[in-house]
Amino acid sequence: MWWLQRAATVLKTNDPLIAPYVARVLPSVQAMLNTTKQRIAILPGGAQVLETARAISEVQDVLSHKPN
Prior knowledge:
Layout: H1 2-10, H2 19-41, H3 47-64
Helix pairs in contact: 1-3, 2-3
């Protein structure tokens, strides 16, 4: 999960190469992360499952504060 957190943190949504696509792509990414988090929540695994869901929530939070 560290790579996903790192990618979300260093993502520059105003980069001219990706800026035209950010408004279309980020909502889909957020939706996929939400679906993943919901699916992880139904798995057995205790603390590790909770940690993974928390990490996904943190990534979603970072992405939600990125300018579109």
